[in-house]
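Review form for a predicted model. The reviewer records the input and the model, then writes brief findings.
Reviewer: anonymous (R2)
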Amino acid sequence: MPDSQPWQPDDHAADAAGPTGSPDTAAPAGTGLVLCGARLTDGRTVDVRLGGDRIEAVGTTGSLSAPGPRLDLRGYLLLPAPAEPHAHSDTALTADGTGPGTPGPVSYRPEDIHRRTVEAALLQLGHGATALRSHVRIGDVQGLAPLETVLRARRSLRGLADLTPVAVPRLLTGVAGADNLAMLREAVKMGAGAVGGCPDLDPDPAGYAEAVLKVAAEQGCAVDLHTDGADPVRLGRLAAMAGGLRPGVSLGPCAGLSRLPPQAACRAADQLAAAGVTVVCLPQGGCCGTEDRGTAPVRLLRSAGVRVAAGSGALRDVANPVGRGDPLEAAYLLASQHGLPATEAYEAVASVARAAMGLPGVRVEAGFPAELLAVRGEQLPGVLSLAYSRIVVHRGRVVARTSAVREYCDSETVVALGLPHQGRPDSGPCGGP
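Model under review:
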C-alpha cells in the first residue's frame, strides 16, 4: 500500500517481546499467544492468554503461563476489536480517477475491483476493524461480476479479516427492476451475507423496500438499506414493514433526520426503536454521492431507544476523497461532535456494530472471540484522541501492526519533561540535522 511500510522488528520491549512482534505471528499448534501487561478500560493491568480463536484466560500480570509466544503490551490499552458495518469496497480508493483532468472513470474490471477491495480491507484492518460489511452494486451493465469479485477477495482475506458483502441493486420495481430482483436472489445464493440498496433512488421507494424485505424473509438473511431518512412518512412506512423481521434490519446513514423538524424527527426515531431497526450513522460524512453532508441525530436516536452503530462509508472515493475508513475516527467524532462519552462512542464502532452485522459480542474475558485491538495509551479518551500505534488480533493471531514514533529536537525543555528527543548531532554549524 502506498502509505504503509512493511513492519520490521525493533528492540523496543514495550512494543514486542520475543517472536511475537510480527503481524504474521501465529501460535504453534497446541499453544496459545499470551498478551502481557495490557491495560483494560476499567484500569486493571492483565495478561490475556489466547487459545485458537478464543480468549482462554485473563489474569493478573505474570499469572498466566504458556509454552507459546508472548507479546508485551505494556503501555497499551486492550479493547475489543472494532468492526466496519458500512464500507464500499468495490468503489474504494478511486478518488484519484474520478476528478477533472484525471485518467478517466472508475474501472470495473474484475482485477481492479479485486485489488481495491483487498487494499481497502487491509487499510481498515490496520486501523483495527477485523470484520467488515461491504455494500456491492449489482445489476446494470456489470451484473453480478462485482459481487463475484468481492467474494473472491473475501477468500483472499481469509485469516486476516472477515468480509461480508451486501448485494445492492439500483432498481427493483417495474419492468426495469424485474431482472434485478431475480439477480438479488441469485446474489444471496452466491454468498452475499445481506441484501440492501437505496429505496430513495427507485421510482417506487416503498415497493423497493418491500421487495428487499421479501427476499430477506425468503432467504433468511439480514437487510441493510441506504436511506437519507429525510422523508418521515417513507421512513415510518419502512420501519413498519421491517418490524419483526429477523435476523435484523439496518438503515443508514439517515442524515436527513437531522434536517427534519424536531417533532417529526422524534416521531421517526420512536418508530425505528419500536421496529427494532439499527441505524448505522456515518460520522465522517455521506457515501455514494446520494446523501447531503451531515450525520444522523445520534443523541436523539439513542434517547428514543434506537441502536446506533457507526461506520466509515466512503474510503477515498468520489463521495469523500479523504475518507480514512478508521473506526476510531468515527468514535472520536461521536464523542467530539455529538457529545457521547468515550465508552459509548467506542461501543458504537465495536459491540453495536458487531451486533448490527450479526456477529457475536466481544469482551476481554475468557470464552469470548479473540478479536482484539491494542492501542498505545492508558485511557479510552486519550486513545480516541491520539490513536497512532495499534496492534490488531484476529482469531487469536496478530494480523496487523502500526507503529508511530514522535521525537522532538534536543532542547532543555524537552529533556526536562522527559519527552523522546533526537540525539544532538555532531555536524552542522547550526546544530541541526
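Findings: The two ends are 29 Å apart (CA to CA).
Further findings: Residues 283 and 333 are 6 Å apart (CA to CA).
Recommendation: see findings above.
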